[in-house]
Recover the amino acids of this structure.
């Protein structure tokens, strides 16, 4: 592996750009993603940045079961992303269809339309769970891209979250 | 699925506690004699709820009557119902002066489910009338902008999923009960 | 339809810009087709249905208790709304009167939810006009109310507080203290945001006179919630058709419907901010007057044949559940009308005649939910070149356009 490639892969792990796509979700997961990016749990400190276009993104965060109408759009957007690309399914719906299993217009989880790298279950997962999932994803990424060292980021410890909470409340 | 068609004793409200509602009910019944059927029109036990059964071809007249006489401008929604032989369209409104929610409903026969649209009187019904046409196959004739709104583009023409006898011919309701991701070559 | 509703005939070049279709809204994500002439929008069309999950059909195969949890997942932002309204409908159909304390706790959850939803909207509105500092601030303070909801119900988004016949969790004395303390903090912050929204020129200049929806049109096009009240339409189910503890709130005479006669986006913003402060006061009143007693009534799973129309004022407007029961433990027909559905019609009107640069804030003003990932496709009418344009680029361009104008 050339030096340049190594550098690029390293940058990918250190600062993945994420893109958020709603494939028919109820919004619960979407607001929790935004909450995870907001001041309290600040995902940006891991270098994760939300971008508005699939062409700029490395990782797509998918929420919601895939409805019939959204499926072609989801696939088209997936094609528009540049390689290497990763998909994270956020929420029970995106993982398996959740409460909407058995509906005539729903295909099930996101993995019925496009390949998924990581699943974050929960209805909706708490922002801290999303943070943890993102951290896990970074681990997987570094493995896949051949970067052996530890990712710089540590998951937020329970006490830390508590202390942040107290600080905000005070 | 038989007892819901007729008005049961649970619906009817005692007259003493619902004076305002009964006053309006009587006035409407007197004014609209012939357009509104006594069968199926009643004062509900819930406070401030009236239901009127309207003849399908008189719906526009009745709506116009309410708009002029009772200053009705708040259109709430439209819900469809499958009664077996008939299909039903329920128009829900709210009268802000009397603070009473009224429901005007029309029954149309299943083999010819048509009545005239009221979207031109109240633009608020544009989307819900389209929805009714798609999901129940009840056609509001004269709708200014008929178009697809809820169902996928490839949905077959004469299948209406919300009807009780829609039997799911393509196994769509089982499709989402999956047990794992697809294999890479299937995408 | 009135004359002004008709799209005007224009000289080419006319460009159609579809926004969406992926628009993360509640039950109705939409695609907006804007036809522009230069900077002016001359026609707007809304396409919905991308998020159709056929909830009403699934519900016919589930029991009332299961449908209760399904209802919660119609919309994650108004989860308590749909959950509580359905519980209310089932109780009315079964003719059960729930205990007073349960009514108060139910109303408390609703009002806390209103606070969280309105602060969320405020943040999004700040973001849409390019005022990101206030966006971050308001979302930080939103966490305060999220924590209150979490301590009250055990969950951040889908609270599952209501059940058929009452509520599932009680408010203890220590919880009451926590809630009151949190509410004080919220009130202080909300007063600050009210001043920011009214006196801060960065925000005000972008919303003043934008997206005008005249009172008459708002009425005939069925605008509900803050969209309607911002145009001086007195629709508020909490005062017009009160249920639960709203009856006491109305009778106490301390609270009034918030109306604004500005008829533009600024009016809608003011209505929402003032309403949040009112909601904080309502929560405090409810906590101080919380009656004693049980929180739950037993209801038999089979509900007698009946038909019910349950209404409630969600943060975005009037929610209607029309429920028909048939004597079994499953609904015969359950129709849900979410407020955004009612607001599409009037929104198409508001977009007409506005500037393209104002489109993001006008779309956001009815609070369709987030529009953080939308992309815009520019289709030139003549040569059909398709250009992908994310909404945030459009937003940045619109901010630039405003800068260059002043
Ligand atoms: S997992 Fe839950 S919160 Fe997330 S989209 Fe599905 S129903 Fe909504």
């Amino acid at each position: 592996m050339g030096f340049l490639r190594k550098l690029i892969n390293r940058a990918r792990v250190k600062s993945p750009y994420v893109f958020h796509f709603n494939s028919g979700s109820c919004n619960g997961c979407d607001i929790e993603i935004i909450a995870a990016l907001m001041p309290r749990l600040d995902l940006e400190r891991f270098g994760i940045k939300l971008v508005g276009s699939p062409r700029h993104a490395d990782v797509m965060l998918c929420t919601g079961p895939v409805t019939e109408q959204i499926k072609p759009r989801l696939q088209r957007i997936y094609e528009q992303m540049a390689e290497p690309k990763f998909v994270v399914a956020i929420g029970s719906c995106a993982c398996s269809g959740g409460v909407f299993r058995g509906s005539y217009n729903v295909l099930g989880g996101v993995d019925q339309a496009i390949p998924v790298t990581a699943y974050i279950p929960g209805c909706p997962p708490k922002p801290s769970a999303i943070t943890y999932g993102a951290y896990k994803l970074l681990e997987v990424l570094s493995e896949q891209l051949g970067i052996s060292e530890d990712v710089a980021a540590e998951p937020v410890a329970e006490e830390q979250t508590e202390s942040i909470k107290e600080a905000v409340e005070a | 699925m038989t007892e819901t068609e007729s008005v049961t004793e649970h619906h009817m409200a005692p007259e003493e506690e619902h004076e305002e509602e009964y006053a309006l009910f009587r006035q409407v019944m007197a004014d609209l004699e012939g357009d509104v059927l006594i069968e199926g029109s009643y004062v509900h036990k819930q406070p401030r709820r009236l239901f009127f059964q309207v003849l399908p071809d008189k719906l526009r007249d009745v709506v116009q009557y309410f708009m002029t006489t009772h200053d009705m401008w708040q259109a709430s929604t439209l819900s469809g119902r499958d009664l077996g032989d008939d299909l039903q369209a329920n128009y829900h409104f709210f009268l802000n002066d009397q603070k009473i929610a009224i429901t005007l409903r029309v029954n149309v026969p299943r083999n010819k489910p048509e009545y005239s649209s009221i979207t031109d009187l109240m633009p608020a019904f544009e989307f819900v009338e389209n929805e009714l046409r798609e999901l129940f196959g009840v056609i509001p004739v004269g709708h200014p902008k008929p178009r697809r709104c809820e169902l996928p583009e490839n949905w077959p023409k004469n299948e209406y999923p919300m009807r009780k006898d829609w039997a799911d011919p393509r196994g769509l309701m089982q499709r989402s009960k999956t047990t794992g991701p697809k294999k890479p070559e299937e995408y | 339809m009135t004359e002004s509703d008709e799209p005007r005939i224009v000289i080419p070049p006319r460009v159609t810009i579809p926004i969406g279709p992926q628009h993360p809204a509640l039950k109705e994500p939409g695609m907006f087709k804007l036809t522009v002439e230069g900077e002016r929008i001359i026609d707007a069309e809304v396409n919905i249905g991308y998020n159709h999950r056929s909830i009403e059909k699934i519900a016919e195969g589930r029991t009332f208790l299961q449908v209760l949890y399904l209802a919660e997942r119609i919309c994650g932002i108004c989860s308590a709304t749909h959950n509580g309204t359905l519980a209310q409908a089932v109780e009315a159909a079964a003719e059960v009167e729930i205990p007073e304390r349960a009514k108060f706790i139910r109303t408390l959850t609703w009002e806390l939810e209103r606070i969280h939803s309105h602060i969320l909207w405020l943040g999004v509105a700040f973001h849409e006009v390019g005022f990101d500092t206030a966006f971050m601030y308001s979302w930080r303070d939103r966490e305060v109310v999220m924590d209150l909801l979490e301590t009250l119900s055990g969950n951040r988004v889908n609270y599952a507080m209501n059940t058929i016949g009452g509520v599932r969790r009680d408010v203890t004395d220590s919880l009451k203290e926590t809630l009151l303390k949190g509410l004080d903090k919220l009130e202080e912050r909300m007063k600050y945001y009210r001043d920011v929204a009214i006196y801060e020129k960065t925000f005000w200049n972008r919303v003043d006179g934008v997206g005008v929806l005249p009172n008459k049109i708002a009425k005939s096009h069925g605008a509900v919630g803050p969209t309607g009240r911002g145009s001086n339409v007195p629709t508020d189910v909490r005062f017009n058709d009160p249920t639960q503890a709203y009856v006491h709130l109305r009778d106490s005479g301390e609270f009034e419907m918030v109306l604004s006669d500005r008829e533009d986006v600024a009016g809608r913003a003011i209505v929402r901010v003032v309403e949040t402060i009112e909601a904080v006061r309502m929560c405090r009143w409810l906590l101080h007057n919380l009656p004693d007693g049980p929180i739950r009534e037993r209801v038999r799973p089979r509900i007698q044949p009946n038909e019910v129309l349950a209404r409630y004022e969600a943060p975005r407007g009037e929610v209607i559940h029309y429920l028909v029961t048939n004597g079994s433990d499953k609904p015969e027909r359950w129709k849900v009308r979410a407020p955004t559905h009612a607001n599409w019609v009037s929104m198409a009107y508001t977009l007409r005649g506005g500037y393209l640069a104002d489109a993001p804030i006008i779309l956001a003003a009815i609070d369709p939910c987030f529009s953080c990932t939308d992309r815009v496709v520019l289709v030139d009418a003549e040569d059909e070149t398709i250009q992908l344009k994310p909404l945030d680029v459009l937003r940045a361009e619109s901010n630039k356009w405003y800068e260059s104008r002043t």
